Amino acid sequence: MRKTVDNIFKKKVDKFDKSSENAFTENLKTVLLAILIALVIRSFLLEPFRIPSHSMYPTLRVGDYLFVTKYTYGYSRYSFPGGLPLFKGRIWHSLPQRGDVVVFKFPKNTHTDFIKRIIGLPGDTVQMKEGRLYINGKKVEREENGRYIIDEYLSIPEFYHKYTETLPNGVEHQILELSDDERIVDNTEEFVVPENAYFVMGDNRDRSDDSRISVGFVPQENLVGKARFIFFSHDDSGSIFKPWTWFHAIRWRRFFRGIH
Predict the structure, then answer these.
(1) pLDDT of residue 11
(2) Could you tell me the maximum CA-CA distance found in the chain, to the nearest angstrom?
């Protein structure tokens, strides 16, 4: 009788062990599948980014979270996590347009992501003279439309002139200028954009490190994708140690705003 009870108990324990093992295996498969799907989406479709600096105001603000489409310009080694050198150049690529807001790998350190607006295409000449942008020798039109104050994530507010700038292909976008004689960025040499590269600038013209300064020309291979829309945004009015302030720090009106 005792032997029979022991056998029954052993069978139940074995059954429980096998059931637990099957459950663990299924859970592991689910986790691995979720990771695989996330990697595929991140590598081939969409990748999230957070804006850390003031260089793209007023288009993009510190604390904006946005999605970048990876397929827009095709794929290069930098489309994939770690930038593995699986192949050279780009595959299935299409050419960026002047005025596109793009994420790219900083040419001098490809572990760093930058976001700027494409201003110069291969073969173009680009120059700043007395605060005005010249492309291929022609002054780019701009129209002033008020003042703009940046007072978030800064100890002292900054006061700007806001303009609507119209690029040669008709793309209109907003830019900021402290003045037309600010530092070296408002008077530059004439840059000639080489083949398979782009000249980029920030919309906050006097507070942007871009192709005028240390970024230089951006190789086509370094493009990660095109910035499409903001999916979340917050300002600096909340405190991580005061949860009741979080709700008011969220910029609700910026949710799902397209990037132009």
Answers:
(1) 54
(2) 101
Between 20 and 156, residue with greater pLDDT: 156
116, 208, 211, 226: the active-site residue: 116
Rounded-to-integer distance, Cα 202 and Cα 54, Å: 9
Least confident of 14-28, 187-201, 230-244: 14-28
Give residue 149's pLDDT: 97
pLDDT-derived band at 60, boundaries 50, 70, 90 = very high
Q: Does 239 participate in catalysis according to the annotation?
A: no
C-beta separation of 99 from 171 below 8 A: yes
CB 34 within 8 A of CB 180: no
Q: Are 211 and 125 in contact (CB under 8 A)?
A: no
CATH class of 51-258: mainly beta
> Residue 248 and residue 137: Cα distance in Å, rounded?
47
Burial class of residue 232, CB neighbours in 10 A (0-12, 13-18, 19+): middle
Residue 10 appears among annotated catalytic residues = no
Distance between CA atoms of residues 196 and 88, nearest Å: 13
The mean per-residue pLDDT over the stretch 184-192 comes to 95
Q: What is the DSSP letter of 34?
A: H
Angle at 123 between CA 117 and CA 128, to 5 degrees: 55
Q: Which of 55, 76, 208, 211 is catalytic?
A: 55
Residue 127 above 90 pLDDT?
Answer: yes
Residue in the block written with tokens 């040669």: 168
Question: Residue ranges of the domains in the chain?
Answer: 1-49, 51-258
Kindly indicate the confidence band of residue 25, based on its pLDDT and cuts at 50, 70 and 90. Answer: confident
